[in-house]
Each structure stands twice: as C-alpha cells, then as structure tokens.
Amino acid sequence: MSEKPKHDVRAIVGHFQIAGEFLEAAPYGSGHINDTYCVVFDQGGTRVRYIFQRINHSIFKQPVALMENVRRVTAHLAEKVAGEADASRRVLTLIPARSGAAFYCDPVGNHWRVYVFIEAARGFDAVESPAQALSAARAFGRFQKMLADLPAPLLNDTIPDFHHTPKRFAALEKAIAADTAKRVALAKPEIEFALRHQAICSALLDAKLPERVTHNDTKFNNVLLDDTTGEGICVIDLDTVMPGLALYDFGDMVRTTTSPAKEDERDLSKVTMQFPMFEALARGYLSSAAEFLTPAEKKFLPFSGKLITFEIGIRFLTDFLAGDVYFKVHRDGHNLDRCRTQFKLVESIEQQEGKMSQLVATI
Ligand code: ADP
Ligand code: GN1
Ligand code: MG
After folding, report:
1. Is residue 264 in contact with ligand 2, taking CB distance under 6 Å?
2. 221 C-alpha vs ligand 1 centroid, how far in Å?
3. Could you tell me which of 153, 132, 166, 283 has the C-alpha nearest to residue 213?
4. What distances in angstroms separate CA 183 from CA 38, 253, 265, 337, one per listed residue?
5. 56: Cα within 13 Å, side-chain hemisphere
6. Residue 325 to residues 7, 28, 181, 317, 320: CA-CA distances in angstroms?
7. Which atom of ligand 1 is least distant from the CA of 92?
8. Which atom in ligand 1 lies closest to the alpha carbon of residue 116?
9. pLDDT, tens only, 23-62
10. What is the pTM of this model?
11. Is residue 88 exposed (0-12), middle (13-18) or buried (19+ Cβ within 10 Å)?
C-alpha cells in the first residue's frame, strides 16, 4: 500500500455506513476505467477491508442510473445465492451511504460506491491453467443464468451500443480521418489489419440472436477465483451489466482467457489462442449455460471470440489515434501495444476456428 491515492479518500469514508476507525487507503487493482481503492478500517481490533470506487463519469454519463442497475443486480443475485455456503463471497455487497442511497456524490460531483471486500480470492491479469479458465467460464455462465429472471423493467443502458461492432468500426474510421493526435502514421499495419476485417463486424447483429441480461465485460480479471478451491467465486465489475448478447460475454472470455500473455504484452510471439484453454472455457461456460442457449448461439461461440477480440482491438486503436482519452494508459504507445496483442490473437483464432467449431459441436 505505498502508491499515493489520487483522491482524498479519507474525506469520503465518513459518508458510508461503516463502523470503526479509518486506518488507510491505497489505489487497488488494474482496471482501465474506474478509480479503485482498498480502504482499511479498525473494527473492534480487527482490520477490515472495503473496496471504494469512484465511478468514471466521463465514460459512464449517468452514474445514478448505473447504480440503480448495480443495486438491482446485486440484490437479485443475493437472493439466488442465499443459503449457499459462503453466500457473502458469491456476490458483491454494496455498503449504503449514510443517506441510505447506494452511492455518495461528493461536492465536486464524483459518485462513490463501496463494496464489501471479497477476501481469500483474487483476480488474475493472465490465465495460468485450463482449470482457471473452466472456473471463470462456469462463473460467468452462472451469472447469466441467475440474471435470466431479473424482474422487469429492463436494466438501463449504461453505455449505449457498447458492443455494436459496426459502430465501433465507424468510430475508428472517424479517428483515422481526424488524426487528432497525429498518430495515424505510427499505426499503418494495424489500420490495414482493421480495414481488412471490416466484413466480420455485423455478423452477430445480423444473426438475430436473443437479447439477455449480460455482463458485457467478462475479462478474466473481472471474476475472483477462490484462493483455496480455485472456484470462480464472485463476478465483479458490474458497470456494464445490461441487455446484450450471451456471445458478447463468451467472446470476451476467449479474448482474455486463452492467451498466456497479458493484454499489453510487447513480445507478440507470446500471444496465442491456446486450444486447451478454449476447450476449458467452452466446457465451463456450457456447464452453466447450455440449458438456456439456442443452437445458433452455441454455433457462434468460436466466432464470438474472434469478433470481440477484434472489437476491443479496434477500440484500443481508436483510443491510440485519439490521443488516449478513454482507457487508462501507463506508458507511451500503451493502447497501440494493446491493439497489437488483440490483432495477433484474432489471427491465432482464425487459424484454429474450424477446430474450435468441431469441438463445440461435440459438447
Ligand atoms: P474497473 O472497472 O476499473 O476494471 P473493477 O470493478 O474491475 O474496476 O475493480 C478493479 C479491481 O479491484 C478488480 O480487478 C479487483 O482486483 C478489485 N476488486 C473490485 N471489487 C472487489 C471486491 N469487492 N473485493 C475484492 N477485490 C475487488
Ligand atoms: C475496460 O473496466 P475494465 O478494465 O474491466 C472496458 C472494457 C474493455 C477492457 C479492455 C467500460 O474494462 O470494455 O474490454 O477495458 N470497460 C469499459 O481491457 O469500457
Ligand atoms: Mg475490471
């Protein structure tokens, strides 16, 4: 806990219904969007940790509507897991603000929320074994299953057209034309790769698949794995839970949970779609989701991996060209490095897509 907090978290803590004395706060995790802090309290002589988050409101334009989603989703999931062993580690628990609301809005307009810290579990930035892939996919499939009967109304769209790949492509074309940061010349091969793949963008939308409640950001580090059992104990990062396609979630699992390399790896020889990881993902996901998926959804599982990897690749490229305005970056060229790993992975999936489809047909 050495890094200096960007915000005065000490000034925020008193606005939440937390007992005990504030001890310390430090930036936490490796998310690209929100500002996350681990905050420690002394409660009757025991150190108790909480997760404090400042919602990035330049990305999530309606934090109040977002928190309404999070409140409904966490309450629904809590009902589903009630009575199970370890229930309080299986779903995020919001700590209410002193006002009773699910968040606190500070004097400068930042929206803060607090979660119970899920102890004895952790997220990983890169997958290490097929057993981990299986656990993660099973947890995300179960997450979709538990939310299938979320009572009406529909959840709010926290980012409209989040996985509308053709619109993401149009945004890339606009960024190329504008060349705001004068970086187009630095990304010629990547731009050519993107243009060559435009034809795949609309395939999932054209397939007229059913809309469901989906997570939409099923990156491997958005599920916490139990330290002892390895089970995918808790799905986190609920900001983008909203109506979507089941395949957006499976696709992002393939993107983040098949390559041994981190998302920003510079040595592209390390980036590859490992077939045993894909097999574990497909088996894990189908162990929870087979009962509600349609045959068409199942058929598109391998393709969704290629498409979502391509989609996030063009988002990184767009952000690089726009001057790094969306994703947090920690070095020069960070978004371009991330784009390169995505496109390398797309190629690797392309080479194995036939085999991946054959496998899925046997499960
Ligand atoms: P972002 O949207 O920026 O990715 P996340 O909600 O994923 O933010 O949180 C960032 C990191 O904080 C996660 O990757 C995870 O390591 C950690 N984290 C988030 N919520 C919890 C929690 N309730 N318990 C323990 N760790 C958490
Ligand atoms: C962001 O919040 P985080 O870091 O889990 C992004 C995802 C991208 C991902 C790429 C709201 O996810 O869409 O796939 O980075 N979240 C948002 O790593 O844009
Ligand atoms: Mg996250």
Report:
1. no
2. 8
3. 153
4. 36, 30, 20, 13
5. 16
6. 20, 21, 11, 12, 8
7. 23
8. 23
9. 999 999 988 999 999 999 999 999 999 999 999 999 999 9
10. 0.96
11. middle
